[in-house]
Design brief:
SH3 type barrels, 53% helix, Nuclear Transport Factor 2, Chain: A, five-stranded antiparallel β-sheet
Amino acid sequence: MPRFKIVLLLFLLAFPFLSIAQETKSLEIPETLEHPRATLTTFFTAMNASPPDLATAASTLDLSEVPPLAQETQGESIAIQLFGIFNRTKFIELDQFSNDPNADEITIDLSISINRRLQDLSPIVLRKNADGAWRFSAQTVATVPETWKLVKDQPVLGELKDIRPFESVYAKWANDNLSGSWLEPGFLGVINWKWPTLLLFLIASYISGLIIRVLAKLIIRLKTGRIGSELSKSTLDSAGNGFSLLTNGLVFGYLVKQLSLPPDPKAAFLFLALVITTVGMGWLAMAVVQYLIYRITPKVADTDKAERLFLPLLTNIGRLIVIGLTLLFFLGRIGFDITGLIAGLGIGGLVVALAAKDSVENFFGSLTLIFEMPFQIGDWIIADGIEGIVEEISIRSTTIRTFHDSTILVPNSKFIAKPVENMGRRRFRRLKTTLGITYDATPEQVEQFVQKLRTYILEHPKTWDDKINIAFNDYSPSSLNILMIVFIDADNYNDELLIREELLLGVMKIAEECDVHFAFPTQRMIIDGPNNASPLQP
């Protein structure tokens, strides 16, 4: 079995087990979030680390109300602000908090002194989520930015650590060099100087993508040598475009994260960056598929023709896999629970959910054609009452050209449910005919004719010597019948026709040599009348 078949088969077999593993993993509650004390310990340990472990600290926050694309940067920013709020308002004694996973909701009241007057702040709430993990509530996450504005100028308590939210070089430059309306919030709550900055980011990412595109195509040609010079223009263009868009998306997304944008605008711009990145990934993966098929083609060309015909089919399957994985990546990034979906459905349920019943059957029909290879292009097949020559095999259907020169598109599912008779796989092709000679032939002539036929067929290079049956076997109303069954060694239908013609012409020549004649249906009419009857006149 070719390597590409083995890889595809292992992928399909491993997929359900990967889903089960993901499902098992997703059901586990992390020890770091098992109860209120564990969550607080995790948060403060991460923030007091050097440097702070912002990703771990953000995992203690319920970010369900934050747009998925903004959760990473927004979570880290909220974690820093929350840590700053705690260190300016309250000493936290971890031992005072429950270590019971089933404890009631925890509320931490905060207050600060402003102008010698005590002012209450929004409380910090820890709550058990639906997945069983304890996190700072979504409401707390939503109120942290406003609370931070109230306390950021307050000194930290005692010798507690002070961490301030990250300020990019762009923000520092703007704060030092701009004034007035430039530093005020504008459309969508975005500070005005950031809009032209975003436009510059787009231009910068576009230019970087163009540079990467040229460099990528050049490096591919240099690294692949002779192969690179023979690669099709479409493959190189796909690779170049893929690298270009991938660079555009990654650069723009990185630059957007450097700006402290409100959650919704940030999510919108990161969504744009994700779309560009995803398209670039898909485009680049398509180029990889084309390249792999290109590398396989010369090796397969030296093997059985049956292997070569499936290269277009494998190309289509490779593209579908790329599209599917790219789509799953995109959906996962925008917040869909892809792991849960796959774990719940498994490969069969996933396919059923993504396609109609007929499409599923056609997909497995295509797999049948790949692994079993019941026929190849150029074979004469009979399937479900359809007879003809196979012209093309695709991911969904097979094109058959009938002997009336019409084409029939047969869904690949037919090759699972119905038997397929492959006339092209015959080792030998049978020629069966009855030779009728006239009754005026003598027994000696019949015997001579049959013997010469046997000798001719045995000596012919394209017949199967062990399967020759030639004998005088019947009297018919108008002929002496000689049955001739011969098996022809032919690779295809055209060769079979040529050899049949050669054999039948040889039979005619032998008949001339033996002076026997082929009969055709005739009747002799004898009219009997009185002896003295006159001949009939016209």
